[in-house]
Each structure stands twice: as structure tokens, then as C-alpha cells.
Specification:
Bound molecules: 1,4-dihydronicotinamide adenine dinucleotide
Radius of gyration: 20 Å
Oligomer: single chain
Distance between the termini: 23 Å
Structural class: alpha/beta
Order of helices and strands: EHEHHEHEEEEHEHEHEHEEHHH
Number of strands: 12
Largest sheet: 10 strands, mixed
Strand content: 15-25%
Number of helices: 11
Strand order of the largest sheet: 2-1-3-12-11-4-5-10-8-9
């Protein structure tokens, strides 16, 4: 029996987390979900969109899964998602991006993982106005955070049998901040015996670096060339949406926020206010996040059952949500997944 904190979130959050819970139950895992609201809906009652008792509950359970939470644009409270990552020091954001047979996309066989530094960069929230004339946001990159994220990326690359570990940066322009990120990346890779390769050399595992603009182009042109990409916060945010576009869209891509003590799993996408309440959101991303969570807690059989069910539903292509070219609702999709799991 596992106790897991669940934050359904807002927008499509309640719809997709309900679907996820149903599928995890069908896979046979006993979970006590400890559910909490966060965001706009609790602001008045608690004076904050992320009340302390939620943080305490996650610290106690060491594990949470959350739906998306809306962040007001240009004003209002700061992102609950960013606050949660900072508060729990969830320093690594892991985003595996893989193609499923049957899902229309520009490429087959994409298997890329983006590892995004999750605690600093332009997300540190250090910004101010200079009168009405200008705004300044400070980009903070520290050696300890670069060391931790690169070490995580080295371990991930080795453990998962990948070959290429690439740092993404803009150190040609931001020589001090991204320059530090790149220097530390090279040091930590050397310490882990993940060396650069020379032309024509074939190595089992190697490291290299790509400037972020070139990375964006190459990810679109030749995504199959990449394995694991590690990068500062902002580039990770942008490039993971780009990569989601390569495998069927935002409804597909899961993520794990990993810290030393806790882990919080969530879809990459946001609260999709345009389709909220219509019952048509694609719950795959949060269901895939639950697969990552189940593997994290050692429930490998259940994780495999759900993953196989997703493979089957996409291969058959009969029950698909609107974003994937189908006409099924969130509920019909999750019911079909449960049926496949039951019959497996
Ligand atoms: P979004 O990811 O919510 O939506 C972008 C596009 O993808 C929209 O067309 C939406 O309909 C579609 N989409 C997203 N998820 C989908 C799904 N599961 N099924 C079908 N279609 C889906 O991004 P947007 O519009 O930039 O952000 C909306 C709100 O979400 C903002 O307040 C933003 O701050 C917040 N957000 C929250 C995140 C989190 O809680 N981790 C992450 C990203 C954004």
C-alpha cells in the first residue's frame, strides 16, 4: 500500500487525473491518494496558492503526482509549479519523449530525454522594474546546481543505456552564466568517464554540446540523432514542448521532478483552459507520468501493464482523443485502457 499526494490542479487537471487514478487502480496497485487543491481556488482561504500543508504532506509521503495549475500571465501569484520545485528542491526535471506506433507524427523511433535543471536560471524570480522604462530578470546559474544536474544526467544516460549526452547552452553569448554551465558539464562528464569523441571514432557513450538555437533546428531535422539532452531551466521548458510536437503533441509527454528526498510527477502540458470542462483532454501525459511514478516506487509490473495498454490503444487507433485525430472523450479513452489492462 502506497500513500501518494495528489494535486488534481485546475483546467483539464481534474479530468485527466481522474482518468489516471482509474487506470492505475485497474493495474492493481493499492494507493491511498491524499488529495489537495492548489492554485487560484485556495488563494482566498490560505492567502497563498501553495499552502504549507501540501508541502508538508509531500515531504511526509516523499511522492506526489499533480495535474497542471494555471499561472496568471504578467501579474498575480508566482507559478505554483515553480514554487513547488524550489520548495522541495526538485532539481531534476526528466522528460522522456518517445514515439508510439500508430500516433501520427513526423518521425518514427524518437527516443529522446530532456533533463532540465529545475531550480534556477531565469526562473529564480529575481526581477524588477526600472520605472516604466524597463524590466530586468536576472539569470542565475550556480556551480552546485550545474554539478547536480550533470551528475544526474550522467547517471541517467548510463542506467538507461543511452549513447550520447549533450549539453544545450548559449555560452557563446552568455559567457559567464551558460559558460559556467558548460564548464561544469565538461568537468562532471570527465569525472564520470563520459568523454567527447573525435571525428570517425565510435564510442559506446560520449558527451558533446550544442548551442540552443542549433539544437532547436537539429531536433526538428534529425531528432533521431539525439539521446539525452541536459540544459538550464528555460531552454528545457521550450525544447521539451518542441519535442512534444515531434511525438503527437503536448497531450503525450510525461515528466518527473526528482529531488534528493521527494519526487513529483506531472504532465509536461499546462491547464489547457480552452478545452477545460469539455471532457476531451488527452490523459496520456499524466498516465505516462504515473508509469514513471510506479517505476520509481518499484511497481514495475503495473507500470508495464499500463505501458502495454497504451501501446495497444495507439496501435489499434480506434479510441483516440481529439488532439490525436480521434473523437473519443477522456472517459472513453481511459475506459478502453482499463478494458485492455483487464483483458491482458
Ligand atoms: P497548455 O499546455 O495548457 O496548452 C497548449 C496547447 O496544447 C493548447 O492548445 C491546449 O489545448 C493543448 N493541450 C495541452 N494539453 C493537452 C491535453 N492533455 N490534451 C489535449 N490538448 C492539450 O499551455 P498554455 O496554454 O501555454 O498554458 C495554460 C496554463 O497552464 C497557463 O496558465 C500556464 O502557466 C499553465 N501551465 C502549467 C503547467 C504545470 O502545471 N506544470 C505547465 C505549463 C503551463
Amino acid at each position: 500500500m502506497h500513500k501518494i499526494t495528489l494535486i488534481p490542479g485546475d483546467g483539464i487537471g481534474t479530468e485527466i487525473t481522474a482518468a489516471m487514478k482509474k487506470v492505475v487502480k485497474e493495474a492493481g496497485v493499492d494507493i491511498i491518494w491524499e488529495e489537495f487543491d492548489a492554485g487560484e481556488s485556495v488563494l482566498e482561504e490560505y492567502g497563498t496558492p501553495l499552502p504549507k500543508h501540501i508541502i508538508e504532506n509531500i515531504r511526509e509521503n516523499k511522492l506526489a503526482i499533480k495535474g497542471p495549475i494555471t499561472t496568471p500571465v504578467g501579474k498575480g501569484f508566482r507559478s505554483v509549479n515553480v514554487a513547488l520545485r524550489k520548495e522541495l528542491n526538485l532539481y531534476a526535471n526528466v522528460r522522456p519523449i518517445k514515439t508510439f506506433e500508430g500516433i501520427k507524427s513526423r518521425y518514427d523511433n524518437i527516443d529522446i530525454t530532456i533533463i532540465r535543471e529545475n531550480t534556477e536560471d531565469l526562473y529564480s524570480g529575481v526581477e524588477h522594474k526600472i520605472g516604466d522604462y524597463a524590466g530586468e530578470s536576472i539569470k542565475i546559474i550556480t556551480r552546485p546546481a550545474c554539478e547536480k544536474i550533470t551528475q544526474f544526467a550522467c547517471d541517467y544516460t548510463k542506467t538507461n543505456g543511452y549513447k550520447r549526452l549533450s549539453a544545450v547552452h548559449k555560452a557563446n553569448i552568455m559567457k559567464i552564466s551558460d559558460g559556467l554551465f558548460l564548464d561544469v558539464f565538461n568537468e562532471v562528464c570527465e569525472n564520470n568517464k563520459i568523454y567527447r569523441k573525435n571525428a570517425n571514432e565510435d564510442k559506446d557513450i560520449y558527451s558533446d554540446d550544442v548551442i540552443v538555437d542549433a539544437a532547436a533546428m537539429n531536433l526538428v531535422l534529425n531528432p533521431e540523432d539525439f539521446d539525452v539532452l541536459v540544459m538550464p531551466n528555460l531552454y528545457g521548458d521550450i525544447l521539451s514542448d518542441l519535442c512534444a510536437g515531434l511525438v503527437g503533441g503536448l497531450g503525450m509527454v510525461p515528466s518527473a521532478n526528482i529531488g534528493e528526498d521527494c519526487a513529483v510527477f506531472e504532465a509536461v502540458h499546462g491547464s489547457a483552459p480552452q478545452i477545460a470542462g469539455k471532457g476531451i483532454a488527452n490523459p496520456t501525459a499524466i498516465i505516462q507520468s504515473s508509469i514513471m511514478m510506479l517505476r520509481h516506487i518499484g511497481e514495475h509490473d503495473a507500470a508495464m501493464k499500463i505501458e502495454n495498454a497504451l501501446r495497444t490503444i495507439f496501435k489499434e487507433g480506434k479510441v483516440l482523443t481529439v488532439d490525436l485525430g480521434g473523437d473519443s472523450s477522456t472517459e472513453e479513452f481511459s475506459n478502453e485502457l482499463c478494458k485492455i489492462i483487464r483483458n491482458s
